[in-house]
TrEMBL record:
It holds the Pfam family Epimerase. Residues 4-241 form the NAD-dependent epimerase/dehydratase domain. The lineage of its organism: Bacteria, Candidatus Gottesmaniibacteriota. PANTHER family: DTDP-D-GLUCOSE 4,6-DEHYDRATASE-RELATED. Belongs to the NAD(P)-dependent epimerase/dehydratase family. InterPro entries: Epimerase_deHydtase (IPR001509), NAD(P)-bd_dom_sf (IPR036291). This is NAD-dependent dehydratase.
Length: 329
């Protein structure tokens, strides 16, 4: 199979690329290196089945069709993430997350790919009204990042309906694992905490730490992506989560170290909790890596965050100023 991964140098994308190469796929990676890095694919960079292309999917001068020739599967992960930058630069987020997705969809459609997998975000649910949260729950994005990821999902489903492009969208819940980011919200909290732990600094816990998140290990997410691609299911949306929310206090206890508390951030739910019955029934997927095991794996790979920025209460307060300005009700 020939697979194309947009954002393949990023956190989730790099793990997916490694998995596809292991399964003997020929893999083409399109990435603009704005957030991803070549270091994420060091272990496979010399694989003859891997092609890396530094490409901005929004650049109108680039004919994306040229990179989709003979491609069977498309995994679209390229996107701008994080809450605060999306508030500060809403047009940039719309351009990359929405317009970029449409350009990738069109290239995939014109080249007749066999399956198009989109990575959506559970942030589309906003502050859910019920737990665990079903795919049919109310959509209530609270900031531009969440909105643009949801709008792009609607384009994906629309291309599936109108142009018969075989599409599936996966709404990911709080992904964590090796190479996780150190900016943004949960599960970027892992990258933040690990960089702080390496630097001997206190872990910055938002609020009282009792809020819980449906932390989902990256290898489980990769398996969900591959299962969706290999299935005959099309035109569907699936939650991808562990189904077992864990509190931030529990995470802190497993990581160890001192703690400092910072104010609650507006627009964030007290809990995220995926109802995963649909993906279990239709794709036969279920998470394999427990929260405790995932944290142990991260601690074994902690050196990855040696050069990462170390956040402090003061720098967090400064960086989230716009967040509090616009999202406080």
């Amino acid at each position: 199979m020939r697979s194309l991964v947009t954002g393949g140098l990023g956190f989730i994308g790099s793990h997916l690329v490694e998995s596809l190469l292991k399964d003997q796929h020929e893999v083409i990676v399109l990435d603009d290196l704005s957030t991803g890095c070549l270091e994420n694919l060091l272990t496979v960079k010399n694989n003859s089945s891997l092609t890396l292309q530094k490409i901005d999917i929004t650049d109108p001068k680039i004919h994306l069709d040229n990179y989709f020739k003979g491609v069977d599967l498309v995994f679209h992960l390229a996107a701008r993430a994080n809450v605060v930058p999306s508030i500060e630069k809403p047009f940039e987020y719309h351009n990359v997350n929405v317009n970029g997705t449409v350009r990738v969809l069109e290239a995939a459609r014109r080249r007749g790919v066999k399956k198009f997998i989109y990575t959506a975000s559970s942030s589309c649910y906003g502050i859910p009204e019920s737990y665990p949260t079903l795919e049919s729950a109310k959509i209530d994005p609270r900031y531009p990042y969440a909105l643009t990821k949801y709008l792009a999902e609607q384009y994906v489903l629309h291309w599936g309906k109108i142009y018969k492009l075989p599409v599936v969208s996966l709404r990911l819940f709080n992904v964590f694992g090796p190479r996780s980011r150190t900016s943004g919200t949960y599960g970027a909290v892992f990258g933040v905490f690990l960089a702080q732990k390496l630097a001997g600094k206190p872990l910055t816990v938002v609020g009282d730490g009792r809020q819980s998140r449906d932390f989902t290990f990256v290898s489980d997410v990769v398996e969900a992506l591959v299962k969706a691609a290999n299935s005959k299911v099309v035109g569907e949306v699936f939650n991808v989560g562990s189904g077992k929310p864990q509190s931030v206090n529990r995470l802190v206890k497993l990581l160890g170290g001192s703690v400092t508390y910072i104010p609650n951030r507006p627009g964030e739910p007290d809990c995220t909790w995926a109802d995963t019955s649909k993906i279990k029934n239709k794709l036969g997927w279920k998470p394999r890596v427990s929260f405790e095991t995932g944290v142990k794996i991260l601690l074994r790979n902690i050196d990855y965050w040696k050069k990462a920025p170390v956040w402090t209460p003061r720098t967090i307060e400064k960086s989230t100023k716009e967040w509090f300005k616009y999202l406080t009700v």
